Amino acid sequence: MKVNNLNRDIVVIADDFTGANDAGVSLALSGKKVSVAFKTPFTDDTDALVINSDSRAMKASEAAEKLAQYAADVHAAHWLIKKIDSTLRGNPGAEIEALLALSGKRQAIIAPAFPAAGRTTENGVCLVKGVPVTDTEFASDPKTPVRHAQIAAVLAEQTALTSVVITPEQLAAALESDARLVIVDARSDDDLDRIIAAAFARDERPLLVGSAGLCDALARRLATPRQLLAVIGSMSEIAQQQIQRVRGQDNVSTVLIDINDVFNAAMDGYQQQIAAALAAGQHCVVHTCADTHARHQIDALCEQRGLSRAALGETISAFLGELTRNALETSRPAALYVSGGDVAMAVASTLNAQGFAITGQVAQCVPFGRFLGCRWQGPVMTKAGGFGTETTLLEVLHFIEEKMSD
């Protein structure tokens, strides 16, 4: 039986199902694996867990009690978000206080604005297309009518925690104050992005409280770049042509492995190069053959090292397998491309993969899928060393940039 997946990147507590989906969709589009749970414990692996408490129409005390059920998930979150309605319906005060108590967090940043849907906040007032929410249909909602346009007044009905109303520019200073509830105005997505940036600057992560607009801003901040880590152990002529074809691209970095370093187990420098390339938003191509001339020096290298061609290949493949595993532990490329059968198997072995699930084909002779039974579950593309055309690797890069971002 599986147990809860501890240390999830994000846990969102929403008070209704559609709101839960609204909170999760942008995170999914940013590259996160997102699941919406109706009940807990939720044991499937997921980057972002969105829990629907279905508590919007409950009494405030009942809503707070319902959230106490999620204590284990709250404690496991790197980022904890209370998703609230952008028009302040429901039990925001009671649920925020409950989550602060459960999580042990000192402060909550509260920004219910959703500018893309016409919901903004100015001077602590919730506006719908520029009109105070109490002058709109939401004031007469049949289940959860809104009685106040002032966010602080809504919260004060259900909690005695101190609050302050500020602008995004004042947020950094407010997070140093004693205010438990920091209500932040936002009239644009840029304002929400500044709010998230201020939260990231804190050593102690605050509770984030907002609508889908704030979740979208977090997703933008956490978006996974669409980068490929390509590990090419093949010395075939076509493999070298494929590398040369992408080398001139502005968004491609290449890392050439010196064979002498393979025998010296000198791996740290290459790991740093790979991490730096991916962190800079570059595709990273790791290869072991500088040019055609190097390919014809294999016999001399074997004689120098006292190895057969097979033994030399095994040594290089093992090095590349370990290097790839280490790179995947420290960076998060969108996908992995492995060229050369021995290298592909070495990578699978170091990742402790139990098999390979084929999903489809990216380009001619480039099947893709996922390794089975191992921790790294990103897409994997494989290619036999001598297969393909000069543009094969370029086609793979285009697939990563275009198809995987759809």
From TrEMBL:
Keyword Ion transport: no
GO molecular function: kinase activity
Pfam families, per the entry: NBD_C (PF17042), SBD_N (PF07005)
Domain spans labelled Four-carbon acid sugar kinase nucleotide binding: 229-393
UniProt keyword Transferase, yes or no: yes
Superkingdom of origin: Bacteria
SUPFAM superfamilies: YgbK-like
Domain Four-carbon acid sugar kinase N-terminal: 10-218
Keywords, in A-Z order: ATP-binding, Carbohydrate metabolism, Kinase, Nucleotide-binding, Transferase
Family: Belongs to the four-carbon acid sugar kinase family.
NCBIfam families the UniProt entry points to: ThrnKinDtnkGamma
Protein name (Swiss-Prot/TrEMBL): Four-carbon acid sugar kinase family protein
Organism of origin: Leclercia barmai
